[in-house]
Every structure is written in C-alpha cells, then in structure tokens.
C-alpha cells in the first residue's frame, strides 16, 4: 500500500487531485491546511506528499522543511501559483523533489507523481517480499508465515490484513481502508464487527499480543520492534 498525502486548500482542485491519483493499491489522504497536514504526519509518515505552497494558515515551504528534517528521503512535489525563478529555487533547495506551477495538466502531474513512486518501488520491491520483525517472518510471495520458526496457516483475508499492516508499519492503517482492501471483491458480506474479528483471529494464530495496536476510532498499527 502506498499512502499519498495531498495538501491543497482549493477544494475543487483537491478533489480532482484525489481522483486523478487514486488507484487500488493507494490510500489517498487529503488536507486543506498546514494544521491538518501536521496532524496526519503525526500519525505516521506517508510515502509521498503533494504540497501546495500557499495555504490559509501558512507557507508550505515551512512544512517541507519539517518533513525533510524528519524523513529526508520522503518525496515531495510542490504545487504553487508562484512561477518566478526565486520561488522555484527556494522550493528545490529546501528539498522538494519536483515543482509544478498552476495551472497544470492533471495528466502531466500524474506522470510526475508516478515517476517519484516508481523510485520508491524500485528501492523497496525486494525488501517488501519478506517482512521480518522480532520472532516473526512473513514471505508474502510464497505465502509462508512463521512465528518462532513455526509455520502458521492463514486464510486469504488474514493474509491481506497482515500484508496491509506490515507494509504500512509503523503507521496507522484506517479501518475504512482495511475493510475496502480485505473485502473489495464483494464476495463476502461485511458487518461492522468483521474487521475486529479478523484482527483477533490473526492475533491469536500468530500470538501477536500487542504487536497489532488498536488505535481507537481510527484503525490499527503494526508496532515494529515490540516484544510481547
């Protein structure tokens, strides 16, 4: 799962960006101000940020500085109506990976975003085949899941849940996203407790204890490095 954070105060444009970048393997999080963006970042760093410079409660360049200080490798594309050389240089020297001036073509923006995401994919594709943490080892290609060296059989839905949580670790994965990913084929009826029951089954089978942390009212997070 790739988490994309969009920070744009123009609601119409924000909605258009969300629609243009939405794909099955992506979670789109949209904000309209710096405060909301900082709240989202506090929940866990996304994989990519699309950031407007001129926001109602401040300058996006300041948020860019904070992002790069906390996670230098996190790709950020700036959006702005300011197209002077000085503005472009300031954005790039602050750490922006690309810079797009308004108005722009959504198809061009989508291509530039995809370029940044391909870089991420190229860096992590091998790593993501197998997830190892503490006494747990999960090979999602071969569907081999072990705890303390013992293999555990998981259902298709449990495998999907485990994949979403571990690939997003240590960030919080929302309940809505998980429900959509786990039962998107429409073959199974999903009531309000289906996700909670699946999480409990996964915890029991793999003896996870608090490795899967419940973030009440939001979702769940895999806590890396936690020993039960």
Radius of gyration: 19 Å
Give helix % range: 40-55%
What global shape is seen? elongated
> Going by CATH, what is the homologous superfamily of the largest domain?
Response regulator
The assigned structural class equals: alpha/beta
In the CATH scheme, what's the topology name of the largest domain? Rossmann fold
Order of helices and strands: EHEHEEEHEHEHEEEEHEHHEE
**From the structure provided, what is the oligomeric state, counting identical versus distinct chains?**
single chain
Number of domains: 2
Q: Describe the largest sheet.
A: 5 strands, parallel
Going across the biggest sheet, name each strand in turn.
Answer: 2-1-3-6-7
CATH class of the largest domain: Alpha Beta
**Beta-strand content bin:** 15-25%
Spatial gap, N to C terminus: 26 Å
CATH architecture call of the largest domain: 3-Layer(aba) Sandwich
| Mean pLDDT value | 85
